[in-house]
Amino acid sequence: MTIAILGGTGPQGQGLALRFAMAGIEVALGSRDAARSVEIARDLNAKLAGRPRCARIDGFENDRAVVAAEQFVMLAVPYAGHDATLRAIAPLLAGKTLVDLVVPLTPGDPKSVSMPPEGSATEAAQALLGERTRVVGALHNVSAHTLNHLDQSINCDVLVCGNDVDAAEAVAELVGRIGVAAYYAGPASSARCVEAITPLLIRLNISRKVPFSHAGIRIWAPGAPA
Amino acid sequence: MTIAILGGTGPQGQGLALRFAMAGIEVALGSRDAARSVEIARDLNAKLAGRPRCARIDGFENDRAVVAAEQFVMLAVPYAGHDATLRAIAPLLAGKTLVDLVVPLTPGDPKSVSMPPEGSATEAAQALLGERTRVVGALHNVSAHTLNHLDQSINCDVLVCGNDVDAAEAVAELVGRIGVAAYYAGPASSARCVEAITPLLIRLNISRKVPFSHAGIRIWAPGAPA
């Protein structure tokens, strides 16, 4: 299997590429700049050298990365590029599943969100792409820092949302392969909550009152240890 | 210290009354029906009999409960009664801190929220009460079931939000006394996320795919056990 990660040259995209490659899933790393994604892919493969059973990471321009993916295309661009990136590749996404990781952080204040009129980035993506592409929001809350520190397990459960339950469950299964618990959190409108958890975590990370940074969230069962 | 809990005869209010009384904090349990709150308070005190250092729980009509509280008035009514309850007691709340626990669950579908035009219940409360009352959102995500099972520790961190940081920090300190970690999650607008976490947890609790019910959320530090 090959998945695409667009905006894959940023910290979150790079970390996810490493984690999926470690899980044996080929990654087509997309960027507006093919030379840059090729270079980053080479660096990432070098980081994985010596680890057993890793799949390859290859760099492409965004549209070529979409074509390389059979089913799952992850969008990990900054919010400022969310709509423009989708418009540029929309026809290529028909029949595939867009996994939207983007959080509409407020420009200049990453401790808050400024949601689009549709309610969330995931809903905006679904409205923009129409019915031919299934949009699933996922992986918004996982710290890029943690993803890139391969010796650490990922301290974040993943809340997955989308109007197509089958697509969302398939994404939850995919995401589970990098070693996280993933839960179906409801239709695309749930992304209004799920995306907004990220700035809450950023606020805690910035705060001196919390004794850790790079925090995640966990669904906490009764009786489980603190 | 005495705190008021309005809507205190419901499951969440009862559970919180027990937990605060166990922490040595007197509780004025408020209801529209004074006879009912007196009766429930008697039952709750009976449940605490034999436990050391518990404070008393007393039943009142809502307005009398507000008067009994020096500073903190918790609102734990169903969303349908949120605005009407606040309007009825608004003058009595001047100079006090309203701790709003209410989640605007969609009628007939507790797996989703239907936020008021202000954005969240906390924001609606602040708009309704004006500047004389400091409104802090807190304790939305804690399972009533867990609160009422006194042998269980509370499997939920508490996200506290409000426009007055000092008031929010004071509420976080108060909430911490029942044995939970409480974090400042930003201004009242953060309640759009914090309140919406509750229906996500309700969805997980209903789902057969999650191996537990009465789930909470936890802020998860890197390196902490799963």
Please give the alpha-carbon distance between the first and last residues of chain A.
37 Å
Q: Architecture of chain A, CATH level 2? A: 3-Layer(aba) Sandwich
Counting helices, strands and paired strands, the structural category of chain A is alpha/beta
Number of helices of chain A: 8
User: Superfamily at the CATH H level of chain A?
Assistant: NAD(P)-binding Rossmann-like Domain
* Largest sheet: spatial strand order of chain A: 3-2-1-4-5-8
**Average pLDDT across residues of chain A?**
95
Strand content of chain A: 15-25%
Largest interface: A-B, 48 and 48 residues
The count of β-strands of chain A is 11
Class of chain A in CATH? Answer: Alpha Beta
The helix fraction of chain A, in percent, is: 25-40%
- What's the number of domains of chain A? 1
At the third CATH level, what is the topology name of chain A?
A: Rossmann fold
The low-pLDDT segments of chain A are none
Instruction: Choose one word for the global shape of chain A.
Output: globular
- What composes the largest sheet of chain A? 6 strands, parallel
Oligomer: homodimer
Radius of gyration of chain A: 16 Å
Order of helices and strands of chain A: EHEHEHEHEEEHEHEHEHE
